[in-house]
Amino acid sequence: EAHRRLLRQHASGTTYSLALLDYLFEHPLLTIRMAEQHLGCSYVTASKTVELLTRILPIYAANGSGNSVVS
């Protein structure tokens, strides 16, 4: 719940951010493409959503072979 509160404080992209947060609890590793498919949005939107999560929450973003991975 604390993570949800942090995301709500950052109004931009809240709907996608909350949906992706829930998804991360079930799938702790994901690529931008996986986020794009799960959210049903563009690659750019998924990428911005992942970037927002990594900026606000205590999660780690790693780059490997062209895909960002969040854990």
What does this structure look like?
There is one protein chain. This protein has helices at residues 2-9, 14-26, 32-39, 43-56; strands spanning 30-31, 61-64, 67-70. It has four helices and three strands. Helix 1 (2-9) runs antiparallel to helix 2 (14-26). It has a three-stranded antiparallel β-sheet with strand order 1-3-2. It is globular. It is 61% helix and 14% strand. The protein is of the alpha+beta class and 71 residues long.
Helix fraction, binned, reads 55-70%
Calculate Rg over CA atoms. Answer: 11 Å
Strand order of the largest sheet: 1-3-2
Number of helices: 4
- Overall geometry comes to globular
Find the structural class using helix and strand composition: alpha+beta
Question: What is the H-and-E element order?
Answer: HHEHHEE
Main sheet: strands, sense, barrel:
3 strands, antiparallel
Quick synopsis:
It contains four helices and three strands; from the N terminus they run H-H-E-H-H-E-E.
List the defining traits of the structure above.
single chain; 71 residues; alpha+beta; 3-stranded antiparallel sheet; 4 helices; 3 strands; 61% helix; 14% strand
Task: Chart the SSEs and their pairings.
Blueprint (H helix, E strand, L loop, with lengths): L1 H8 L4 H13 L3 E2 H8 L3 H14 L4 E4 L2 E4 L1
Antiparallel strand pairs: 1-3, 2-3
